[in-house]
Amino acid sequence: MKIQFLFWEECPSHPDAWRRLHEVLDQLGVQAELERIEITSEDDAQRWHFPGSPTILINGQDIDPQPQSDARLTCRLYIHEDGRPSPLPSYAAIRRAIEAARAGEE
C-alpha cells in the first residue's frame, strides 16, 4: 500500500492530519509506504490536482474525492459523517480508505 500525504505548510491542520493517519495505521496494524509531499506553488497544486491541504492519497486515490474541485494552494474542508465541516479528515474516513485499499490488495 502506498500512501501519499500532500500538504501546504501554511495550512495549520496538516500536522494533526499526519498524526491521525499514523494513529489509524497503527490501530489497524498496516505497514504502508508513506510519502510526504509538500505543495509549495500553484504549479505544484495543478500538477497534483491538489484540492487543498491536507490531502491523503492511498494507491493514488483520494480518501475523500471532491467533485471536480479546482486545484489550488489552500486549506481543505472535509465533511464528517455527522455533517460537521472540519479541516481534518475523520478517523473513520481514513480507516475506511485504508481498509478498502487493503481489501483490494488481497
Model description:
The protein is of the alpha+beta class. The protein has one domain: Glutaredoxin. Helices cover 35% and strands 21% of the residues. The protein is built from 3 helices and 6 strands. It has helices at residues 14-28, 42-48, 91-105; strands spanning 2-7, 33-38, 55-58, 61-62, 78-79, 85-86. The strands form 2 sheets. A 4-stranded mixed β-sheet has the order 2-1-3-4, covered by helices on one side. Strands 5-6 form a two-stranded antiparallel sheet. A hairpin with a 5-residue loop joins strand 5 (78-79) and strand 6. Helix 1 crosses helix 3 (91-105). The chain starts with a strand and ends with a helix. The model has no long low-confidence stretch (mean pLDDT 93).
Name some characteristics of this structure:
two-stranded antiparallel ribbon; 3 helices; single chain; alpha+beta; 106 residues; Glutaredoxin
Strand-helix topology:
Elements (H helix, E strand, L loop, with lengths): L1 E6 L6 H15 L4 E6 L3 H7 L6 E4 L2 E2 L15 E2 L5 E2 L4 H15 L1
Parallel strand pairs: 1-2
Antiparallel strand pairs: 1-3, 3-4, 5-6
User: Biggest sheet, in brief?
Assistant: 4 strands, mixed
The overall average pLDDT, rounded, is: 93
CATH fold naming: Glutaredoxin
Count of individual helical segments:
3
The ordered string of helix (H) and strand (E) elements is EHEHEEEEH
Going across the major beta sheet, what is the strand order? 2-1-3-4
Architecture (CATH level 2) name: 3-Layer(aba) Sandwich
Task: Report the count of strand segments.
Answer: 6
Judged by helices, strands and strand pairing, the structural class is: alpha+beta
Anisotropy-based shape: globular
Q: What value does the Rg take, in angstroms?
A: 13 Å
Helix percentage:
25-40%
Count of discrete structural domains: 1
